């Protein structure tokens, strides 16, 4: 017997059968279900997470330094104790790395006010404190920029009227927020000079409207996370006591 | 061919079809209705534990152990369920800082996620950091508009995947946001971003026409909508410029929608766009009902949101 016609027929019948029973989409229902405490907690998942959570908590809760007061980024107008600490720590921790690699010193530091994500509470400083202040993975970069770009940076700060954390830069404005004096390491800004400005990778790339870092003469990526700089500083510092100072001030008259 | 032979052979063929019908569930009873459930999350950002009772914004919300029990209950109700994620799995709690995403992937595998697309934050430990965690993910990563050919992720990310549930073919493809300006170049390295709208047009055609899918789903990390930048690719724009897509599951903009958005595609047909905020505090659920009964299908598709 020749089976070829049989299979051909089978195939045709099969195709026909499929076509006849094509599925048509008749109804769609869409909604959102809130994940709340009224839902049961899956015991297996919970047990799986537990050792990870305990390890992290033990590490995060280890005391590494002490704060004599509570510091908030809203406790000053143009400079704050926590912001000054933030910028000074970046300088203190990053400059040895930068100097070792390039033989040069960082001239100044600028990061952003919004980048301080939490307060430092009076009392024990733990690893968790550093994670709360700096939850993001941003790293320290040093941009080599012209003096004219530093002037743009100064204009940005004066216009913003915010306590963006700075270190090694001193600014004075009058009662109308007009620039009176701008100095780096106690010297006026020289437009013919190249300055080494430490910031983070987010701001270097124009974050928070900081468009003055580019074009940069060169960029040094230190592979040093801001949070790790804070942690390293806290490890070596028994007690922190930052203050509001004169690095960015408005004259009374 | 003699008529007698024809009848004989035709009878044999019918018998075979009936047998086939027993093993292929899609060809059973003439008016069988089918039900596919799509569950989805986006921008979970390493939020494994629920928010505490003191949290200022989301007290007592979220938590993967609760999501696990919810997903299981839905799977028990309808085994023909897919669980998908629209990216930014990484970054947001110390779980990521300490374990680099290992725990996120392991837990998503335990919840039996079927696929995820890649968000910008999934590059936070670099493309190498993402690659290093892939062995912990039992689900597929789908991205059609990131060309990873010259990166370590080459061959590890597929443009799309076709799932078959109860005989229904479900094509899922992924699209991601422009990385330049959002992710540092030294993190995403030689990943090439391609126009997501053009890629979505290709993908939806391939899935509908070549793969003959009954359902086409786009997993997107483009963002819901950019009213200040209407030219920027977004989920609403993607819906408007494509055809054949039934559902766009979005992410990136952490958009909380009061209900899924019904919008028109390039052919004037309805497309659903959904996004469920962030941090695992919601689960999206879209149910698709199919019918082969002509009387029921004559009225088109009704959408209830």
UniProtKB/TrEMBL annotation, chain B:
Against Gene3D superfamilies, the record matches this protein to:
3.60.21.10
Q: Where are the transmembrane segments?
A: none
* Domain of life where this protein originates: Bacteria
- Hydrolase listed as a keyword: yes
Q: Which residues form the Calcineurin-like phosphoesterase domain?
A: 37-255
Query: PROSITE patterns per the record?
Result: 5_NUCLEOTIDASE_1, TAT
> Which keywords does this chain's UniProt record carry?
Hydrolase, Nucleotide-binding
Q: Which GO terms describe its molecular function?
A: hydrolase activity, acting on ester bonds; metal ion binding; nucleotide binding
Which residues are the signal sequence here?
Answer: none
- Quick one: a GO biological-process term for this protein? nucleotide catabolic process
**NCBIfam families documented for this protein:** TAT_signal_seq (TIGR01409)
The Swiss-Prot or TrEMBL record describes its family as follows: Belongs to the 5'-nucleotidase family.
Instruction: Report what the protein is called.
Output: 5'-nucleotidase
């Amino acid at each position: 017997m020749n089976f070829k016609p049989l299979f051909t027929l089978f195939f045709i019948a099969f195709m026909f059968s499929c076509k006849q029973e094509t599925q048509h989409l008749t109804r769609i229902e869409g909604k959102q279900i809130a994940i709340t405490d009224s839902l049961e907690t899956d015991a297996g998942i919970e047990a799986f997470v537990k050792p990870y959570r305990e390890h992290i908590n033990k590490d995060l809760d280890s005391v590494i330094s002490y704060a004599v007061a509570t510091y908030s980024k809203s406790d000053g107008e143009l400079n704050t104790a926590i912001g000054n600490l933030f910028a000074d720590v970046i300088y203190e921790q990053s400059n040895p790395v930068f100097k070792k690699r390039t033989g040069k010193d960082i001239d100044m530091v600028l990061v952003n006010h919004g980048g301080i994500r939490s307060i430092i509470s009076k009392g024990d400083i733990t690893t968790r404190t550093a994670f709360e202040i700096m939850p993001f993975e941003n790293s320290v970069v040093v941009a080599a920029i012209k003096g004219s770009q530093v002037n743009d940076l100064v204009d940005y700060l004066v216009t913003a009227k915010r306590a963006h954390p700075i270190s090694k830069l001193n600014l004075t404005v009058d009662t109308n927020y007009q620039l009176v004096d701008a100095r780096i390491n106690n010297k006026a800004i020289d437009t013919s000079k190249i300055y080494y400005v430490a910031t983070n990778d987010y701001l270097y790339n124009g974050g928070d409207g900081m468009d003055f870092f580019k074009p940069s003469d060169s960029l040094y990526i230190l592979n040093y996370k801001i949070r790790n700089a804070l942690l390293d500083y806290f490890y070596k510092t028994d007690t922190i006591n930052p203050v509001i100072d004169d690095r960015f001030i408005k004259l009374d008259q | 061919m003699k008529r007698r032979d024809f009848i004989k052979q035709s009878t044999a063929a019918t018998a075979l079809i009936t047998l086939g019908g027993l093993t292929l569930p899609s060809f059973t009873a003439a008016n069988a209705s089918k039900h596919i459930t799509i569950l989805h999350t986006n921008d979970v950002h390493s939020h494994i534990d629920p928010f505490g009772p003191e949290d200022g914004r989301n007290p007592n919300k979220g938590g993967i152990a609760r999501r696990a029990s919810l997903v299981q209950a839905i799977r028990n109700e309808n085994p023909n369920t897919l669980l998908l994620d629209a990216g930014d799995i990484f970054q947001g709690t110390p779980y990521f800082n300490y374990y680099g995403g290992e725990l996120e992937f392991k837990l998503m595998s335990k919840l039996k996620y079927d696929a995820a697309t890649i968000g910008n934050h999934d590059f936070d430990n670099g493309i190498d950091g993402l690659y290093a965690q892939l062995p912990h993910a039992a689900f597929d990563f789908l991205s059609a508009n990131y060309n990873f050919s010259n990166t370590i992720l080459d061959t590890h990310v597929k443009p799309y995947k076709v799932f078959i549930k109860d005989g229904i073919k479900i094509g899922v493809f992924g699209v991601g946001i422009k990385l330049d300006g959002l992710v540092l170049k030294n993190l995403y390295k030689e990943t090439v971003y391609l126009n997501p709208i053009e890629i979505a047009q290709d993908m939806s055609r391939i899935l509908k026409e070549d793969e003959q899918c009954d359902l086409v789903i786009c997993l997107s990390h483009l963002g819901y909508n950019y009213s200040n930048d209407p030219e920027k690719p977004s989920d609403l724009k993607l819906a408007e410029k494509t055809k054949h897509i039934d559902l766009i599951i979005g992410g990136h903009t952490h958009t909380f929608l009061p209900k899924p958005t019904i919008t028109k595609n390039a052919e004037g047909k309805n497309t659903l766009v959904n996004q469920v905020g962030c941090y695992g505090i919601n689960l999206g659920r879209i149910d698709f009902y199919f019918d082969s009964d002509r009387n029921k299908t004559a009225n088109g598709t009704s959408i209830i949101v």
